[in-house]
Amino acid sequence: MRVRSLLLILVMAIVLMIFFNPRLLWAEIKRIQSQWDLIMRLLVTVIFVYICYGLYQLWAGNVAWWPF
User: Fold this and answer.
1) How far apart are the C-alpha atoms of 44 and 37, rounded to whole Å?
2) What share of residues in the chain are helix, strand, coil (percent, to 5)?
3) Residues with Cβ < 8 Å from 32, sequence gap 6 or more?
4) Which ranges in the chain belong to alpha helices (H)?
5) Do 63 and 57 contact (CB within 8 A), yes or no?
6) Do 30 and 36 contact (CB within 8 A), yes or no?
């Protein structure tokens, strides 16, 4: 990594720390972790529905196997 890009990353990190209060950011991270179970259930449900829809499309014959 070049010195210039490293300096740019450090400046961006400092600016972000100035604008975002670390205590508030940490509190938000803790809140998200407390709802992690709900987030994972929702994500797994959405992926399951998407896979079921894809299998239905295969079964119905609506998927072209070749580009022609």
Assistant:
1) 11
2) 80, 0, 20
3) 39
4) 3-19, 22-34, 36-60
5) yes
6) no
Domain limits, the chain:
1-34, 36-68
User: Which amino acid is located at 63 in the chain?
Assistant: V
How is residue 39 written in tokens?
Answer: 């987030």
Residue 68 has pLDDT above 60, yes or no: no
Q: Full-prediction pTM beyond 0.85? A: no
**Residue bearing tokens 């894809």:** 54
* 10, two tokens: 């450090």
- CA-atom Rg of the chain in angstroms: 22
Q: Count CA atoms closer than 13 A to 5's CA, side-chain side.
A: 2
Q: Which of 14-18, 20-24, 52-56, 63-67 has the highest mean pLDDT?
A: 52-56
DSSP H or E stretch at residue 12: helix 3-19
